[in-house]
């Protein structure tokens, strides 16, 4: 993937991560009946976080001073 494609992918992942956060909040407020779905969404959110970190590490390498 090119750097441009990685940046677009990174932005899409960040948007999905925020959307999942809102969905988790809404389900949590709805009551305890949706705990399995909340757990699945949280797992997906963690996966997105890992993907975001991996792309950011690639785009912004550590600089050894």
Report a brief summary of the structure:
With 65 residues, the chain is mainly alpha-helical. It has two helices and no strands.
Largest sheet geometry: none
Number of strands: 0
Number of helices: 2
Question: What structural category arises from helix and sheet content?
Answer: mainly alpha
- Write down the secondary-structure element order: HH
Whole-number count of domains:
1
Round the mean pLDDT to the nearest integer and report it: 91
Rg calculated over all Cα atoms = 15 Å
Percent in helix: over 70%
Q: State the end-to-end distance.
A: 28 Å
Shape: elongated
- The poorly predicted ranges are none
As a percent range, the share of strand residues is: under 5%
Description:
With 65 residues, this protein is mainly α. The protein has one domain (3-59). It contains two helices and no strands. Residues 3-30 form a coiled coil. This is DUF465 domain-containing protein. It comes from Novosphingobium marinum.
Which helices and strands appear, and what pairs or packs with what?
Layout: H1 3-30, H2 35-59
Helix pairs in contact: 1-2
Kindly list the characteristics that best describe this protein.
65 residues; mainly alpha; 82% helix
């Amino acid at each position: 993937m090119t750097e441009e494609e990685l940046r677009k992918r990174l932005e899409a992942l960040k948007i999905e991560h925020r959307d999942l956060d809102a969905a988790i909040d809404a389900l949590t407020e709805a009551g305890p009946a949706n705990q399995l779905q909340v757990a699945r969404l949280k797992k997906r959110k963690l996966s997105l976080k890992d993907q975001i970190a991996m792309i950011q590490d690639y785009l912004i390498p550590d600089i050894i001073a």
